[in-house]
Write a structure and sequence with these properties.
Elements (H helix, E strand, L loop, with lengths): L2 H5 L1 E5 L5 H8 L5 E4 L7 H14 L2 E7 L6 H13 L4 E5 L13 H11 L4 E6 L9 H11 L5 E4 L5 H13 L6 E6 L4 H11 L2 H18 L8 H12 L5 E7 L7 H8 L23
Parallel strand pairs: 1-2, 1-8, 2-3, 3-4, 4-5, 5-6, 6-7, 7-8
């Protein structure tokens, strides 16, 4: 795969037991990989997987979930392990754990703690083009304005509408936020899985639109294996955001369904060349071509 294709995409993966063997078969080790932190896994598993992936050559971006970290001692231990492995970028969210395991109840508190430990980490924060199922728009806006000055980039929640994503970028720019934005899109995963996740993730409006392009028929046939056409959405987003200086690239939610990823990565080669951010870059390019 060309370096240019790698520069325009980041895969989000779950730190499963077989990830270290399956991922290199689907995605070149020069690429950028974001590693989730699920409540039942905990941050230690995320960090361990991130350290291993970094040793293979990946630009690795571990998630740190505020509500899953027990305290300053654990946080510093995790950050030291990542620094020793050469990991320089993090993605900070609140996490889905109902009760905080320690003093960090939301992502802003953890963001401040990480910056106090070391200002050398680049830190990504979450953006929600279609809102959040548990938070008001006012809460989201306030939180984003608080965190943005301490962050280096943003990753948007999975969305199925290029128009909604474009509208969101215009909205945050109007509020004075100029962070590079990785646009979150679904990978080529089962349509049934996407539908089951839709309500929890708060992507109902664009998911309904996506059903109108073949998803409804798949559900009617009860086809568990038919995959959503991620390539089509990526092309629409690329066309919609051409010329937008905030567009850093695509953040693909894979749900570890990696078998079809090579085909999606090949689709990226058909896009016009562009000056999208390379993995790890913190500068904002010209683009000619969970709180």
């Amino acid at each position: 795969m060309s370096t240019e294709a790698v520069a325009r995409i980041r895969l989000e993966v779950v730190p499963s037991a077989d990830l270290l063997t399956r991922l290199p078969a689907a995605f070149d080790t020069t690429g950028s990989v974001s590693v989730t932190c699920l409540p039942h896994h905990g941050p230690a598993r995320t960090v361990a997987a991130s350290v291993h992936l970094a040793s293979l050559g990946y630009h690795t971006v571990p998630h740190l979930a505020a509500r899953s970290i027990t305290g300053e001692a654990e946080l510093h231990s995790l950050l030291l392990q990542l620094q020793n492995a050469g990991v320089s970028e993090l993605f900070i969210v609140a996490g889905d754990r109902r009760t905080p395991a320690g003093p960090y109840s939301w992502s802003g508190e953890l963001l401040e703690a990480v910056n106090a430990y070391s200002p050398d980490f680049s830190i990504g924060i979450a953006g929600y083009p279609e809102g959040h199922p548990q938070l008001s728009q006012e809460q989201l806006s306030s939180s984003l304005l608080t965190k943005a000055p301490l962050a280096s980039s943003m990753v948007t929640q999975m969305c199925f509408s290029a128009e909604a994503i474009s509208r969101y970028l215009r909205s945050i720019r109007t509020s004075g936020i100029e962070l590079p934005v990785w646009v979150g899109v679904p990978g080529p995963v089962s349509i049934r899985k996407l539908v089951s996740l839709g309500a929890r993730l708060g992507v109902g409006r664009s998911l309904k639109l996506a059903r109108g392009t073949g998803m409804a028929g798949a559900l009617w046939r009860r086809d568990d294996f038919l995959s959503y056409d991620s390539g089509r959405l990526i092309r629409e987003v690329h066309q919609e955001l051409a010329g937008d200086p905030l567009f850093a690239g695509f953040h693909v939610y894979t749900f570890n369904d990696l078998g079809s990823m090579p085909g999606l990565l090949d689709d990226l080669r058909t896009l016009q060349p562009s000056a999208i951010l390379a993995p790890g870059s913190t500068s904002i390019p010209l683009f000619p071509a969970k709180i």
